[in-house]
Structure formats: C-alpha cells, structure tokens
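Structure ticket #2291
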Amino acid sequence: MKKTKILATFGPAVASPTKISQLVRAGVNIFRINCSHGATEDFLKAVNAIREGAKKANNFPVGLLFDIAGPKFRLERFRGELPVKSGHKLTLTTGKTNFKKHLLGVNNPAIIKSVKKDHRLYIDDGALMFDVIATQSGRVTIRARNSGTLLPGKGINLPDTDLKIPTVSEKDTEDIKTAVRVDADYLAMSFVRSAKDITQVQQIVKRFGGRQKVIAKLEKREAIDSLDEIMKVSDGVMVARGDLGVELPPAEVPRLQKKITRLANRHRKPVIVATQMLESMRSSPRATRAEVNDVASAVFDFVDAVMLSAETAIGKYPLEAVQTMSEVISTTEEAVVRPDIEIDKHQLTSAIPNAVAEAVIRAEQYCDTKVIFAFTTSGFTAELISNLFPPQPVIALTPNQKVMTELSLFRSVYPVLITQPKSFSDMLTTVNSVSRQFKLARRGDRVVITGGAPFGSTISTNFMMIHEVGR
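Resolution: structure written out below.
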C-alpha cells in the first residue's frame, strides 16, 4: 500500500469509465480536470466518466480536483503550426493569426498593453524564447532567440512584465460554480500572486454554497515572495514547476521545491509536486532514468502527491505512466527514512491533538503496530497524523462521504466509509471488521486507534489506544 498519492489529469486519452477504472486500479487516487481546456459541458462529462470509472474499480474513494485556469496567457488556437527560426520577427495581435503576414494572435489584450521593449517573452514553457523589440498601438513586435515550432494554444510567460490584471476571471468564476455544482473536493487556483487571491476564491466558493478546499498553485515570482501568507490561508499548495521554471531561473526550482515542501509541513498543509514528472511517457512506454529519479526525489521529501499532466491527458501510454509512477513510489518508500519532526515548530498547534498524534507515531517504537485507525468526522485526525509521516498506513474511518474523498490527497491516508460508532465497543467492532474486510491485519495483530470522543461530536483528537485485532 503506497503512501504517496497520485494525481492524474483527465483528458482525451482516458475519457471513458473503463480507462478511468484501469488508472484507479493502477494507483490513481485523485483526478484533475484542467479548466484551461474546455467549457462547462466538457467538465460535466469528465466528472461523470471519472465517477463511473471509480465505481467500476471496486468503488475506491477517488478525489476530484478542478484546476482553475487563472490569468493564463496563451496563443490563439489557430490551425496548423508555425516553424520559427532564430532571429525571425513576429507581430503579436489581439486579432487573428496570419502566418503569411507574420501575425500571431494572443488571448488577452493585457499582453499587448503591458509589455515593454527589451522585455522577455516565453512560449510553451520556455521552449521558444523571444525579445520584445518594439511596441505600438494594438501590436507588439518580437524576435526569436531560438528555433522551434509554434503550436496553437500554447502558454505565454512574461517574466519581466508587471501585469495589473485580476487573478480570477469571469470564466474562472463560472468554472468554480461548476466545481461546486458537481461537489468537487478541491480547487487549484493558478497563477496565485498573494494570499488575497486565495481568499477571493474561497469567498466565491462560499457565495455558491460550496465548501471546496482551495490549493494554491505556486508558479509566479510574487507567490514565492509571499509563501508564508499564502500557506496560512490556503488548504494546500502545488509546486507547478512548468511556469515556475519559466518565471524564475530553472536552476532555482529544485531548491524551491524542497523549501516549499518543508514549509507546507510546518503549516500542516498537503503539498503536490507537478509538471513533467514522466514527460517522455507521452510518447514512450518507458520513463527516462532522470524522470524516475525526479519522482523518487519527491517521495524522499515526503510530499503528499505527485502529478501526471499530459502523460495521462493526451499521452499514448497513460496506464503505463501510472503503473511506472506507482512502482517508483512503492520501491522508493521501502528506503525512506522518516525525518525528525519538530512538532513544536508547526505553525498550527493545538496541545491535546498534538500530544495524542505524537503518541500515535511513537507507539511503533515500542510495539509492532501494523495499522493506524483514525476515527474522524471532519478529517482532522487523519490529516494531523498524515503530517507526521507515520511508517504505517492510516485508515481513516469516517461516516462522511465528502470527507472520505477529500482525504484521498493526504499522504498515507486511505479512507473507509463507516457507520458512526456510538461507543468504544462499537469502535472496536468496526476496527475488527475493517481489518478483516480489507486484509489489513490478522487476528492478534496490534493496531493503533485514535480519534475524538464522544463519537460524532466536534471534539478534536483526544485519545489513542493499542488494540489486538479480534480480541
């Protein structure tokens, strides 16, 4: 049972319940719907396919994340492709692309209005680099630094340009409304620049009557400068290395990834590492050695989840990509060494739950405990223990279907839907039953049980005990 979770992106390559079911069986824990591509009708179809596929896979708890596009600048979705050679000049316009006239359409007039001469402009995650050489009313002239091919809809980055535009667009608001409508578990907000961007999304969710958790995608220089503030208000973070590696020098990204991961742990927030983890598997059935090491490095850092993007959305080998990632995770986790946790340095502290959680983790040092069973109504108990990197799997026992799918993101946590126990006797009966049903522990094996009592109340984690299964 792997501890690090897999977040896979939905797309044409996996757009059927059968293929979704295969991915879930191979190790996917949560699916991402990329709102940069498509409209409401497309997203509704994706949600139906994901949920039908999850049911086919023995109804495993599978989470759902809507990735909100934010102020992403893109080329127009023109037809065909445009080869570019170093030194070639092109003119950006808010109008239509015209290859013969060297006109290149862009999706937002803010690009034309904001860039200045000598600013850098990158396309397709920096695969093509340009310099701005002239600006005029409604148009910008750029010159290519390198050769390559321009493809429709590719992203544009402006690392030198200060863009005074809102983070949440009208389309973003509509997509958030759709996420609330389908009861998604998470929203990932793109191009976050400050804590205010996250609180704005949270307010929109509340306005639509939702309770979705909001993940901050860290891909802008401004976000890196405001990490602590963003961590405090968000429900988790994603290290979006594609745009981050364009906005900042690529050599800084590995260091930032580790810094963000450590900081997320201090704030007790889940962290996702994303972008190009198994990029070559878009067209190859085997990953490169460097990609395998990239996934393993994230596992060694105790991230909560690693993400597949184009590999599953449009790749030729989506199932093989998930299988490869699962294998790398499982093999690497056999060698990980749990870091020393300085719980007193965590930004969010609560004396009794912290004391109990630390006792739960330390129990394994004194007696061989196979599993941790966390009874939880809100998810708090399981989340708290997950953040302390237990060596055993954490089985989150909850009567709440919504909490069950939300917990799909957290490291080591595997949720099971139960009937709320009314007494400690009911609790032990549930543990024995779940142990047998999922073959988690045999009769006589020791397991740790924790939660908040009285059961069904809003009282935080306040007890732990060691139980011998079936006795």
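Closing remark: Residues 73-157 form a domain with the M1 Pyruvate Kinase; Domain 3 fold (CATH 2.40.33.10).
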